[in-house]
Request: fold
Amino acid sequence: MIRSATGILARLPALMLASFVVASSVVASPALASPGAPASIPRPAPAPVVRHVSHDFGTPVIDDYRWMEKPGSKRLANYMRDQNAYTRKVLAAIPGKRALYEQIKKDANVGTVVFWVTRADGRIFYMGIAPGQNTAHLFVLDKIGGKPHLLIDPMQFSKNHVPQALNYYFVSPNGKYVAFGVSGGGSEQAKLRVLDVATQKLLDIGITRIDGDNTDFPPIAWLPDSKGFIYYRLHKFGTQAPVTDFYQKSRDYLHLLASTDPTGATDKPVFGWKIAASAPMSIAQDALVVTAPDSHYALGLFTENEELQSIDDVYATKLSDLEDGTPVWHKIAGRGVQMAGIALHGDQLDVITPNGAPRYKVVGYDLAGSAAPKTVVKPGDDVITSLAAGSHALYVGAMHDGMGRIMRVAYGTDATTMVDMPFQGGLGQILADPNGSGIWFRLSGWTTPSGWYDFDPATGAVTNTNLQKPPKVSFAGIESKEVKAVSWDGTMIPVSIIMKKDTKLDGKNPTLLIGYGSYGITLTPFFAPTFLPWLDHGGIIAIAHVRGGGWYGDAWHKAGMKQWKINTVFDFIAAGQYLVDRHYTSPAHLAGEGGSAGGITIGGAVAWRPHLFAAAIDSHGDTNSLRMQFSPNGPPNEIEFGNVLKERDFHWIYAMDAMAHIRNGVKYPAILAVTGANDPRVEPWEVAKFAARLQAASTSGRPVLLRVSYQSGHGIGSTKDQEVRSLADQDAFLFWQLGVPGFQPQ
Reply:
């Protein structure tokens, strides 16, 4: 994620180190073949080595590529350019790659993907990517089965053909307006605009420095009367400000549609940095305002790392005072509550909290102050993941062993109803009807296509809305299974395995192990037609649900963060060892993949157990955690990883830093390191440094390649074609290194 929970992988549209090292050193590893890059393609010059040793809290840290961090470094630009050119030539020379690209492209266009749905004024708004479309568009339907009307094509805002992405959209309660943001080239820095739905014309509004999305950090909150909205805005810093200030000192502003100022320059700040003495904000926090159509209150939230899953403090003010520009903020709950999600309805705020509940519970707060907080949903075996406030009841999303569940809790009573789920799968968005009593929800399985389902509380019936039609592709003959691998300390790690039913467990299957493990994010079941090319070539796909994620709730998350972060790496290694021990694959045919914060996972696995893998994909990965602190996105991630400038934190960050544990003369697996030149979350130099260090250290003869996209960022906002090309490059690279026939150079 690193900063928000966005697309983690391109495939989706306490340190007892000594005991582990001793245990792993006695595991025999067969000799691996070393398919190197074609000799006919001249290799570029290696990255210059500039000796740099720092002694941090008594620990010598060698960083011969520290020079890459210099802003605007021409040497870094030249290195990345030359490496990317070489990588493209090497990948293009892989037999079968072109056909693989065409196959993945076909599978990526088997149906329309519908996501982030909103209902307003009886109509249905949604983001969708249809076959042949390259980016997500915004559509509106008058009714299910009706003809979709296109509202926003983000490419209409493109200049010089730079790819554009729709970062977020928020419909006014009366359904007349859509506030939305579009950014270019993967930058994620969107300009806020407003569309008149009836005329499909843009209002004279264009406000910059708006960061956020629909899911983890909604930057727009409409007033219930639809006369304006509150928006989150990053602080404007001077050219001499340090880069680490970028995400700090945010504020929320009130904008009325009647305003004559299109840029927001005269909009009044109502919450955030140094706005209200009654609501003090630290420099490390983000400020967010939340409203609800049926509430007379507005909420002011201070969060960490732009996440609604890490709320520090909640304040409330009367909506009438906010609309007048004179809010009076009163504190409702503080950091000690450990809020992990909220739902506002009427005069009540419901909060997900792990206090006394490792798998969470729900507590209700009376915003009028006439009643003490009370438990709405008691803790149980299910992990509570989300809340949606309906007109008559609160809907509680949960999961059991990763599979989604929904509970209906009627307001004012203890009456609860479990929704009858149509199949076992991963639960996505729950959409409460603001004018009705039911909900829609999205459900997907490893081998079952995603669908949007309607729950009618009057009858208990669950029906497919057919908002998203089944794709024209079948997973018949493909199975999924859930197993558990034992990690270094005896903890059982869930692993999902997807493969063809007739796959022989002979240790020869090309296998891709995927892992993430940060922020409490869970890789729940999803249906990915682009898995098919891998499976059709006899491959197996496995997902390791390592600690640091949320598979078993808050305790599972905390067991893989800060001083316990190394558990994430060791859990991933344990999952790989399980696949080898059970003969799903062997080290010669096993590859690993991690992206974003999952760079810690895959980078650490490569560093600690290089002989377990033949190849690995580092996708926009945090593989130099010791230096993350000094990037724009470093300070916001202190809550998850710690602060490298503090002695206690330094030692565990050193343990999780993959680059710090690369050793000269070791036979490392083949590596394809992937980055985007406009990445706002993990600096491209992190990925470049990791690649350069491995190129200098490895003696396996296997290639270490650096792939750079110059019109994308962290992957959020990438076009479908960019994703398909990147995935084709990754799969072809892995097939080559894992010995798959048809991908071996002659």
